[in-house]
Amino acid sequence: MEFSSKLLENAVNEVSQLPGIGKRTALRLVLHLLRQPEQQTLELAESLQMLRTQVRYCKNCNNISDRELCEICSSTKRDRTLVCVVEDIRDVMAIENTGQFKGVYHVLGGKISPMDGVGPSDLNIVSLVEKVKLGEIKEIIFALSSTMEGDTTNFYIFKQLEGHSIKTSTIARGIAVGDELEYADEVTLGRSILNRIPFENSLKGS
Ligand SMILES: [Zn+2]
Fold first, then answer.
1. Fewer CB near the last or first residue (10 Å), C or N of the chain?
2. What is the similarity comment for this entry (predicted)?
3. What is the mean pLDDT of the segment spanning 132-159?
């Protein structure tokens, strides 16, 4: 792609780093921004900069938060003895949308995936085990997507928690194997949390 302007080329190159955005789409987006009022682009740039430099993670659940403790963890209405283990914030948002879960979350920050070079130590697993050791948690619900990586991660954590007297369960699978949680419809996802099954049962036949 030949550019008449180095400034334009730089902007297109930066935007095209985003997932799913090729050079052509990047060019279209950048030209769009140039046609909009200058203020709009400056606000976009500022919000991204603020997000990047000021983002915080809840010290209890690792969810993205503006404060030390996220709204869910600091709410008095949530049951802290019930912890739902999810991959990332999109899963928290999907489950919150169902309105069916009154516990708290633990955000792992990914799934174990040797192919992508992601091992247990790259995820927030140690902090989960530490929390369980404190003795307040009664049940852990695994709500990772039902992919090979999700299953591997569940099993790894399940093994880490062996010997602690807590219940482990997994969300019932109205959700087809390979579906990502965030795409599951709210009714199905809500029901699958209510109808969760003991984790051991999910291992049988697999
Ligand atoms: Zn939190």
1. C
2. Belongs to the RecR family.
3. 92
- Name the pTM for this structure: 0.81
The tokens for 44 are 């976009």
pLDDT above 50 (res 145) = yes
Radius of gyration of the chain (CA): 21
Residue 160 near residue 125 (C-beta atoms within 8 A): yes
Residue 99 CB partners (closer than 8 Å, separation 6+): 190
Residue 85 Cα to ligand 1 midpoint, Å, equals 12
Residue 57 Cα to ligand 1 middle (Å):
8
pLDDT for position 177: 45
State in Å: Cα 106 to ligand 1 middle: 8
